[in-house]
Amino acid sequence: MAKLGGSQALLAMLVGILVFQAACRVSCFDYGDALDKTLLFLEAQRSGKLPPNQRVKWRGDSGLKDGFLQGVNLVGGYYDAGDHVKFGLPMAFTMTMLSWGAIEYRNEIVRLNQMGHTLAAIKWGTDYFIKAHPQPNVLWGQVGDGVSDHYCWERAEDMTTPRTAYKLDPEHPGSDLAGETAAALAAASLAFKPYNSSYSSLLLVHAKQLFSFADSFRGKYDDSIQCAKQFYTSSGYSDELLWAATWLYRATDDEYYLKYVVDNAVPMGGTGWAVREFSWDTKYAGIQILLSKVLLDGAGRAYTSTLQQYQAKADFFACACMQKNDGYNVATTPGGLVYVREWNNMQYAASAAFLLAPKSNLRISSADYFLGKNPKSMSYVVGYGQNYPIHVHHRGSSIASVFALQSVVGCVQGFESWYRRPEPNPNVIYGALVGGPNNNDAFFDDRSNYEQTEPTISGVAPLFGLFSRLQSLSGNSGYHAPVSQKPNPNTPVTTQNLLHADVPVHFFHSITQSWTIGKMTYYRHKVIIKNTSQKPITDLKLKFENLTGSLWGLNPTQEKDVYELPQWLKVLKPGSDCTVVYVQGGAQAKVSVPSYH
Predict the structure, then answer these.
(1) Where does the record locate the signal sequence feature (predicted)?
(2) CATH number at residue 590
(3) Number of domains, the chain
(4) Residue finishing a domain among 230, 264, 298
(5) What is the pTM of this model?
(6) Is residue 459 part of a domain?
(7) Which one of the listed residues 84, 117, 391, 393 is annotated catalytic?
(8) pLDDT attached to residue 518
(9) Which of 186-195, 464-473, 498-507 is predicted least confidently?
């Protein structure tokens, strides 16, 4: 094997080729808990008819007529931030990043028993994109508008603001938005491929059509959807076209897409732009790192020379983030946080940390800063740790739930009775990454301070992959809830309080075999159930949701989907485990503990 040069070695670290020493893996933070909370935040941002297994119980159905005035069903998707607009560009970027994390860290996510929640989060977005793409050259890019929405402070369930939908078509192009949506669907097709091949193929059909639409009818989306310009102004569409082609190459292995990024490297800025930002608007650093991986994997072939130029720009981004660019570095706060923008800076720090996830010093310092290792000793991920923002700029979080206060909270009443109140938000919006501190690490926890206290879905999405990576490096394989939330040992644990309970049973999930019959791929799943406590466990009940195949190793009970230990294993001793095997096509089953003693 030929030796890697300095540039190649750096990129090898970026894409996770190198194995890090155990000394780099020490941390006092529970990244598995933080990861779980990021998925909870996405559940809190859901629009549409909520599913029965919705874990964020203070949310209700909303936006059930989105698109109906325009004769299209646009129910579903995600609200962008503390408001109720469904902005297409950041939502698509969110799904791309969530899918990228699921692809790169699939084994880690499976070991954490989070793949079910992960695919559900992605599918909530991609199902919406499929609805929004009813014809090859039509994409509905937004529902609601920021101006009218921001005049009201009300719950999503009470919305009275206009739900106007806006579309892109050949006469009203939006190559940036269509390109990012194509990238999201291509990335999601890879995330779903091991679990639901038919859905993966469907996503790829839409991704290819959207890329063709974006490339054939060029223009900036906010010239066509002008009400988006005030909130998510696009700097251009060239990077999204390269980004979409890069993801389509990765999803299809079709040389057409690789040739596209090579042929357009110069005119679209792929090898010209040396950037210090990666975000919902600027994708160049992500493109450059993905294409560097193609080179490092030995798949460059005739395109090696151009891919090396992409690689050089990826090196620049990495060095800028690590303060090694001789003055051309990303700015940082005195506490060491990457600082790019005054408004919601944390989203830029999170995206940079994700791209450099395999590089231990930056990823850990950034992640730990997010979780509390900073001058304020505050976790900027809501609900994590003991000290986090409690006046989050978020309508649903700041007003009592519709299940607690069933009367309608009007547009003005929301401002007068809830927005201005000094008390903490009544609903903790777990997993929200707020905008964060200023350039001097100062943070003011005030609901009106939207630059610092408002969360966004595009800011949280990169944390998912980052925390997945760090949890695997920390040496822990299961989810650990905070000790302060440990239940009374005499109280049976139910599925309602399990989410934040320190249940002394951990699941280690793996796929040991797969085979294809016709068009269906089947997987042999092995689940190791381990007693991690110091006491024996009896009367253990296990619930297997979404189980469609046969299961071995447990006895069924009279309750639906609930199983118990076999007769010969009535007691699970401290440190001991038992193994369960099941076979099915599609996604893995969701395993939980309804009760134990």
Answers:
(1) 1-28
(2) 2.60.40.290
(3) 2
(4) 264
(5) 0.78
(6) no
(7) 393
(8) 66
(9) 498-507
Averaged pLDDT for residues 340-361? 87
Instruction: Identify the DSSP state of 329.
Output: -
Host domain of residue 582: 505-595
Note the pLDDT of residue 497. 30
Active site residue 454: yes
Whole-angstrom Cα distance, residue 331 to residue 439? 9
Q: Indicate which residue of 30, 80, 83, 281 is catalytic.
A: 83
CB-based contact 362:348 (threshold 8 Å)? no
- Name, in order, each residue with C-beta under 8 angstroms of 483's C-beta and a sequence gap of 6 or more: 502
Q: Is 118 part of any domain?
A: yes
What pLDDT, in 10s, does the model give residues 178-187? Answer: 999 999 999 9
Cα–Cα distance for residue pair 424/306, rounded to 1 Å: 54
| Residue 564 annotated in active site | no
What CATH number is given to the structural domain containing 183?
1.50.10.10
Per-residue pLDDT tens over the stretch 36-49: 999 999 999 999 99
Q: Which of 61, 127, 255, 445 is catalytic?
A: 445
Select from 399, 456, 424, 391 the least CA-distant residue to 155.
399
- Catalytic (active site) residue 368: no
In a domain, 450, yes or no: no
Under DSSP, the state recorded for 433 is: B
Is 297 part of the annotated catalytic residue set?
no
258 domain-assigned: yes
